[in-house]
Amino acid sequence: MTHALPKLPYAYDALEPYIDARTMEIHHTKHHQTYIDKLNAAVGDVPDLKDYSAEDLIKSLDKVPDKIRTAVRNHGGGHANHSFFWPILKKDVGFSGDVADAVKKAFGDFETFKKNFSNAAALLFGSGWAWLVVDSGRLEIVTTPNQDSPLSQGKTPVLGLDVWEHAYYLKYQNRRPEYIEAFFKVINWEKVNEHFKNAH
To answer: pTM to 2 decimals?
Structure first.
């Protein structure tokens, strides 16, 4: 398959004022597109990989030839992570559903979860992602560097936050904690709940 940029399920300004339209446009059309272009270039000459989705590639890096494995890990991860990220963003969706019950069970209450997730995202050195994942039926918070994915570790993401500077620098500059706080205003808990149900 030729990997292609997914269409956003909302306008670029739909997350204002928490995530600005210009950042969304650049992030989607420039950064995400570049990951796709470089992934297509890496796998284009490998017939065995032509039917693999980005997620399948990331789950099966051991099947990827050595000479392109790093490119697939980086750019396939970038494509998979961003394709996961866009649909979990939406304003005014309340924290509810099975995933809310599971969060409370795992962390005690929402505020404790938010604090732990925010700390993980804020303290991640350099570029990467913070995730809420299902691992062996249990929720846990993990971080990955660069464009690495929990999928490579056999874990199923249900929520993810991009903390690369390109995700927030136009509006928040070096104030990553403010961006993380804003993220909690635009989590599409309905989509997160869907991921959670599919992880079981």
So the answer is: 0.96
